[in-house]
Amino acid sequence: MSEEEKQNLKEKICKGLKQSFENLLRRKAALGQDMVFADADGMPRIVPAREALIEYESKHPAKES
């Protein structure tokens, strides 16, 4: 596998993981559920998915096509 192929594969995987996480956030927010994240010490932190989605969208604005 060439370096270009490796880079393309890495980009596809990262894009898929990002899309999957966004879908999970949107689905849980729509259902009024919570998300569980780990804080800096590794302890669980429960956040309403709606708040997590707002924070995520503020840090990752949608790209225009």
Shape: elongated
Range of strand content: 15-25%
- Give the low-pLDDT segments: none
Largest sheet: 2 strands, antiparallel
Q: Mean pLDDT, rounded to whole units?
A: 93
SSE order in H/E notation? Answer: HEEH
Largest beta sheet: what is the strand line-up? 1-2
Q: Based on helices, strands and strand pairing, what is the structural class?
A: alpha+beta
Got a strand count? 2
The count of domains is 1
Q: Provide the helix percentage.
A: 55-70%
Distance between the termini: 30 Å
DSSP summary: helix tally: 2
As a whole number of angstroms, the C-alpha radius of gyration is 15 Å
Descriptive report:
The chain is an alpha+beta fold. It has one domain (3-59). The protein has helices at residues 3-30, 49-59, and strands spanning 34-38, 44-48. A two-stranded antiparallel sheet has the order 1-2. α1 runs antiparallel to α2. It is elongated, with a radius of gyration of 15 Å. The N and C termini lie far apart (30 Å). The model has no long low-confidence stretch (mean pLDDT 93).
